[in-house]
Amino acid sequence: MATYTDNNYGDINQQQGVYAEAKMLEHAAPILVLSKFGDVKPMPKNKSDNINWRRPQTIPNATTPLTEGVTPSGSTFDYDIVAATLAEYGDWFPLTNKVTDLHEHPVGSDLAMMAGEQAASTIEEITWGIIRGGTSRELANGSTRSDVNTELSLSLVRKAVKTLKRNKAKRINKVLDGSPKYSTRPVEASYVALCHTDAEYQVRNLAGFISTAEYGQRTLMCEEEFGAVENIRFITSPDLTVFADAGGAKGSGAAELMSTTGTSADVYPILIIGANAFGTVALKGQGAIKPRVKNPGVADSSDPMGRFGSVSWMTWYTAKILNDDWMIRIEVAAKVTPT
Hints:
- This protein is an alpha+beta fold.
- The protein has helices at residues 14-28, 97-102, 107-131, 154-166, 200-204, and strands spanning 39-41, 50-56, 79-85, 87-96, 137-139, 172-176, 184-195, 210-211, 225-229, 232-236, 268-273, 278-281, 290-294, 308-317, 319-321, 327-332.
- It has a domain at 133-279 and 322-332.
- The strands form four sheets. Strands 5, 6, 7, 8, 9, 10, 11 and 16 form an eight-stranded mixed β-sheet that branches. A three-stranded mixed β-sheet has the order 1-12-15, covered by helices on one side. It has a three-stranded antiparallel β-sheet with strand order 4-14-13.
- α1 (14-28) packs across α3.
C-alpha cells in the first residue's frame, strides 16, 4: 500500500524520489526571482513552524572623549528578532494507468516538471504579495494611489535612492545562485529595482539607462536583469503583479493606460531594495520541495485495481519584510502602447 509519511516519496524509492525532487527544483529555480535578493534562510528541518531572522542592533557612536585612568562604561550589543510563521503549500495531479500505459508522451516526467514550475510561481506570488506591502512609497503623481496615472521619471528614482541612502540601506553585494542548489555568489554592489515586464519600457526611456548588452565586464545579477540607471540594477518578471484598477483616469488614444477591467488605470509597483530588506525561506536544496508519487498499478483498499495514481508537491514557506526603511515602492502607471 502506498503511504504518504514525511520520510518517503510515496510508492517510489528514495533514489527515484530524489530524482523527482531534483527535477522539480531544476524547473523551479529559473522562476524564483525575488528570493535571489532577500535574506534567505535554508529550509529548516525537524523544527517548529516558526522562523526567526536576527539583525544586529546599531551601536551608537562613541563621541565622548576618554578620561585618563577611567574605564568607560561600555556599550551593549544585542539583536533585533523578526519572527514569522511558516505555512504549508502544495497541489496534486491525478494520473491513471491508461495515461501511463498508452499515452505517447512521458506524462509523469512532464508532471514533475510542471509541478516544479507551479511551486515556484506560487512562492513568487506569495513573496511579492508580502514585500510590496511595505510602508515606504513614492507616487508618480497625486497624494493617494487612486490618483496615479503617470509614468516613471528619473526624479522619482533619484528621490527613492536618496531616501534609501538617508536610511543607511546597504547595497546588495551577493545574490542567491541560479542553480537548484543552495548557494550565493558575489555581485557588484548596487540597489535593486523589481518591476513587472509591462513597466520595462519606462525604465529604458530614462536618461542614462544602460542595457545589459552595454555592461562590458559587469556580471549580471540574474537572467531577468535588463539594465541599470545610475546605481540601480533593474530586474523584471511577469509574476510581479500590479494593483489592478487602483489608479486614476486611464485616458484614451495614444495616452491610454493599462487597465485590468477598463475602469481605472492599473498601478505598477516598482520596488527598490537594499541588502536584507526582506527575508525568505530557500525553496532550494534537498527537502525544500517534497514530491510524492503514487504510480498507477499499486493496489490498495481505496483503489483495488490499482488504476489511479498521482503526482504531488508540498513545501513550507514564508517571507517577511525585515526593515521597511531599506525598501521603497514607487507606484506608476503604464501605457497600453509604449512610446
